[in-house]
Amino acid sequence: MGQPIARRRPTPGKSASIAVLLSFLWPGLGHLYLGRMRPAAVFAIPALVLLLIVLWLARDGVDILAARLLLVPVAAFFLVLMTVFLAGWRLTAMGSALLDERVSTTPPGRRPGRGAWHRQPRRTAVTFLVLAALVLSTHGLIAWTGLAFLQGFSKVYVSGPQPTAAPGATDGDLGVLPTPDTTPQPNGRINVLLVGADSGLGYKHALTDTLMLVSVDPVAKTVDMLSLPRDIARFPLYSGGTFSGKINSLASYAEAHRSEFPDGGFGTLTREVGYLLGTSVHYYAYVDLAGFQAVIDAVGGVDIVNPKQISDP
Asked: For 201-213, what is each residue's pLDDT tens digit?
């Protein structure tokens, strides 16, 4: 008589809750804990690839990565897509670890079916549901933020002439020179750059600490506004190369170095903002500290009553 076929029994001592928790921390860790090497690699490798992509994008620093996500619509779309994929991948890994034969009460040799979930201890089910809720909430918040940026940028970005290569530029240059387009298109958006600088009233420097693009839609009669952080640094120039300083110092530097920036201070600033945002800046409005004081005086002034003396040497 032949020997009975030995059936592999579930490995004792393996906790479903621990397997789910490890899969929550990183896809594949739960299967590694269960001794499932192949599923562990299948779930872990794609997540690792995404991590390497993010590290590569952040090679120039976290601030540059944040600027790319904020100023480049494709980067924001990639963030949303990656977030949704990773959320689904983590949930799949957690569910696979939960229903694995080595932690379920399914009889040996039988695949866990619909009843496998119902045979899990209540604490395991609660653990899975809580961790799944954390995955959905955190990834949902990140995806919602990315979608908000995409929707906001879609209202500001306008289609226009494609940029042409800068004079003397080669295929490897970073910069491109946008085709001049200083006149708004009929019924098209009107983009105005609002600039606030800390010059005047005894200040010898002029840093444009306030940069805000206002986009007016005359057809829909709506206005959208986008504020640019003053500390954006190491950004590509429309004329080629990279500006190593911060964007709030670009106008002053360009005005003082006309040989490098023939468009001058505000000409360079408006063209650069348009280049970074992929649109055209038709007008700009500028106010410094003296102008700010004049605006306050024009409305009758503002009375400030301080109960205590202020010492600011």
From this structure: 666 667 888 999 9
Q: Could you tell me the maximum CA-CA distance found in the chain, to the nearest angstrom?
A: 109
* C-alpha span between 239 and 168 (Å, rounded): 10
CA distance 72 to 153: 9
The predicted pLDDT at position 25 comes to 92
Report residue 111 as tokens.
């695949």
CA–CA separation, 228 vs 208, rounded Å? 11
Pairing of strands 190-196, 210-217: antiparallel
Q: What is the pLDDT of residues 8-61, one digit of tens each?
A: 444 455 788 888 889 999 999 988 988 889 989 999 999 999 888 888 877 777
- The answer to whether residues 207 and 248 touch, using CB atoms and an 8 Å cutoff, is yes
Residue that has been written with the tokens 């689904």 in this structure: 88
Tell which residue, 261, 4, 16, has the closest CA to residue 125.
16
Count of residues making up the chain = 313
Tell me how far apart the alpha carbons of residues 191 and 188 are, in angstroms, rounded to a whole number: 10
What is the pTM (predicted TM-score) of this model? 0.47
At the second CATH level, the architecture of 176-298 is 3-Layer(aba) Sandwich (3.40)
Contact criterion met (CB below 8 Å) for 47 and 23: no
What does the DSSP 8-state code read for residue 110? S
Secondary structure (3-state) at 71: helix
- For the beta sheet containing 222-228, the strands, ordered from the edge strand earlier in sequence to the opposite edge, are 222-228, 210-217, 190-196, 283-287
Q: What is the DSSP string of 21-48?
A: HHHHHSTTHHHHHTT-HHHHHHHHHHHH
- Of the chain, the percentage scoring pLDDT greater than 70 comes to 72
Do 190 and 184 meet the contact criterion of CB atoms below 8 Å apart? yes
